[in-house]
User: What shape does this take?
Amino acid sequence: MSFCALLIGTETLTAQCGEAILARGHRIEAVVTDAPDLRRWAETHGLQVLPPGPGLADRLPQADWIFSIANLRLLPAAVLARARAGAVNFHDGPLPAHAGLNAPVWALLAGEAEHGVTWHLIEGGVDEGRVLEERRFPIAPGDTALTLNTRCFEAGLESFPAVLDQIETGIRPRPQAEGPRQLHRRDDRPAAFGRIDFTLPAEQVLRLVRALDHGRYWNPLTTAKIAASAGVLNVGSAEPAPGAGAPGTVLSADDAGLVVACGTGAVRLNRLSCQIKGGAIRPSTLTDAVLPLLSADEAALLTAALTEAAPRDPALRRALRALDPLPLEARPAGAAPDWHRLPLSASLPQLALALLRATGAEAGDVALAARALPGYLAHWAPQQGFAEEGRIVEQHRGRAGLDVV
Assistant: This one.
């Protein structure tokens, strides 16, 4: 039976499943996305493209089914109501064991032996709906977040025709399997900012690094890290290595990698980069004989810091992408080193207005000092949206101004 659909998502898998829908003679009334590649795909097929966000339900046409595929946003009831027959979601994990976001990462961190994907109805709470199709497969010894995500997408594409079969002939949903349920939320993060604890067995160290190895793709959680005399370093990849010693002992440091002893066994760490300055770090340039071990107090501090920072992550990323810094001229010869600094004795809007007038700019962004945790948290954060004619600045005009040197 032919049907019309709304397609919501952001990834290549969304487009590939869209191709399957169209190839079977069904219609796609609209594609909801803010991903440029998916937008281009939709436009080549002459499909209506709508951005997600407020008022989406009012902008959506009516359809029979909604397909949420590689979509990280929760769909409100008003959006779901635009589908006459129901809504189907693709989940990159087995249910109910790993519901929510970043399921492959959490499965690797948990040391699971197998993983899978689930096509389920959107009903009840997050990823609680009845199952239409699922696929399970063993986790390979060297799987990383990148490879496991890829395998999930492959399993999703392979199983999607079976989902369409049900949509065409009548759905046959079944309850989720019995077992414990874990819900991974957007702001959940690994412990200790991803810092490696070398007192653990090598197997667990490898598990952490691989779970946070997203290759060249965006890492939504954090990176695996070590502390060294060169600073806090990101670790991109790891593999087992021969050797043993006291935890944290550097057994070798050459172009083949940094080999470090663990509680049992050893690991070879590669793709090192400096967390503060950026740029790759060659293992052979490191001079540490022993890497500092992670104490319980430091682990608790790092865990708490990342837990507190995680909810701000999406807003900070948006601000950094759109950053429009105020231009500051080079410091004149003989001027005091802090000639362009302003005392924090006034309100932020007043300070912003003073900066705008001092630089002659009509609008711009400034940075505010933030709680610093060197190597983990930056010492500044962007503050956006100050304009000479802006509402925030305008409401402070007429009050006591600031002298700018």
